[in-house]
Design goal:
- By secondary structure, the protein is of the alpha+beta class.
- It contains 12 helices and 17 strands.
- The two termini are 48 Å apart.
């Protein structure tokens, strides 16, 4: 079985999480215990189907980036909540001119990520449970449990409902389709004590196959093929790249270089230094790019030599370089606990670390400042905070204590 852990996001706040690991058996355990068990696995967070709207949308021919920007306005008439309260995710192309789309409330996304982050879980994917149902072309799949029902109607389409509404919803969904688009078969995965005929409308033209699976619903959903037919909600502001690389990318090589020079000065890893020297020469162009971002306004003649000189100078200013490295690591790890926050630029001079960030609002900014200072290792001053559209752009100045 693939190295995935499926963690089901709770419908309400609580200390327990249901998850499925390599053994394939569903377990319900304390969240902290789940986090320890899946620490070396890729994590798929499974969102309640009722919290994710799945749509098929006719879209213009344009780049993915432009389409992502236009998506909220293309779906404006299909959603009830204000657009700025919703998070939109693009799925695969369903047919020519049509794309799959998933919509979730920003508040729910924040709650899910905060719940997982609280115990140290960082998901690689968040997917709707509806899209984990087994599905074949020209067929629909209905899962019915005592507390909910899920209907998958296509590769990336479907919906969730109460059991009491299965008859009405299924009948309406079929009536809205042209004859050519209607499914030929309905697979019913029945976890209730009632026969499926008692919950279904009259379906004279549809082959109905009822199954009573022996495995738990969570285990059944863990058998899905994640390579096709899913939409990862971790896109845009919640994307892995946005949450991680936005913090690491601007100073990745700077941190590596700082660590190298500290180790060299301590005489610990002479051989490792030789190996890294060859890598520095091989990535000269990349160093130049990072140098320009890290030390803007400096003319680049010999990027490797200049980077060395800068790192030596910073080492002297920051008591051997350790303070500089500590500030970056501590500040970066704290920012990671605030989903949606992006580090735009950094600057380090005279023992002060300047961070230029984009964060959701002023309340989050104040919480971030308090979280950074809670360690007692740094003093944080908010030099500026300007509202820009749906977020706040801020300049933080940090000094080690």
């Amino acid at each position: 079985m693939r190295n995935y852990a499926y963690v089901h996001l709770p419908a309400a706040a609580g200390d327990m999480l249901t998850w499925v690991g390599l053994e394939g058996d569903a377990k319900s355990e304390v969240a902290s215990k789940v986090a320890a068990a899946i620490s070396r696995m890729r994590v798929v967070a499974v969102a309640p189907g009722v919290d994710v709207l799945l749509e098929s949308l006719a879209v213009p021919k344009t780049s993915r980036r432009n389409l992502a920007k236009a998506l909220p306005f293309l779906l404006e008439e299909r959603v009830a909540s204000p657009l700025d309260k919703l998070h939109f995710s693009l799925g695969p192309t369903l047919k020519e001119g049509y794309r799959a789309v998933a919509v979730a409330e920003v508040e729910r996304m924040e709650e899910w990520l905060a719940t997982l982050a609280h115990v140290g879980i960082r998901p690689d994917m968040i997917v709707s449970e509806t899209l984990l149902l087994p599905w074949k072309s020209e067929s629909w799949t209905l899962l019915s449990t005592p507390d909910r029902a899920l209907l998958r109607t296509g590769a990336c389409t479907g919906l969730a409902m109460d059991n009491a509404n299965i008859r009405f919803v299924l009948d309406q969904a079929l009536r809205e389709l042209d004859q050519a688009d209607r499914p030929k078969k309905l697979l019913v995965l029945n976890y209730t004590t009632e026969p499926c005929n008692s919950m279904l409308p009259d379906l004279p033209d549809l082959e109905v196959e009822e199954s009573r699976p022996e495995v738990d619903p969570a285990t059944l959903l863990a058998g899905a093929n994640l390579e096709t037919g899913t939409i990862n909600l971790l896109q845009g502001r919640y994307g892995i790249q946005g949450r991680w690389e936005g913090i690491v990318r601007p100073f990745r090589l700077t941190v590596i270089l700082a660590a190298i020079w500290i180790l060299v000065k301590l005489g610990i890893v002479y051989v490792e230094n030789i190996r890294m020297e060859s890598q520095l020469l091989a990535f000269d162009a990349r160093i130049q790019e990072i140098f320009q971002k890290t030390f803007p306004g400096t003319r680049v003649v010999h990027p490797e030599a200049q980077m060395r000189e800068r790192m030596k100078r910073m080492s002297k200013e920051a008591g051997g370089g350790q303070e500089f490295l500590n500030l970056i690591v501590q500040a970066g790890s704290t920012i990671m606990d605030f989903p949606g926050t992006v580090l735009e630029r950094i600057r380090y001079q005279d023992g002060l670390l300047d961070l230029y960030i984009r964060i959701r609002d002023l309340e989050q900014l104040n919480k971030l400042k308090q979280a950074m200072e809670a360690s007692g290792r740094m003093q944080v001053n908010i030099r500026s905070a300007v509202k820009q559209g749906e977020s706040v752009e801020s300049h933080l100045q940090i000094k080690g204590l």
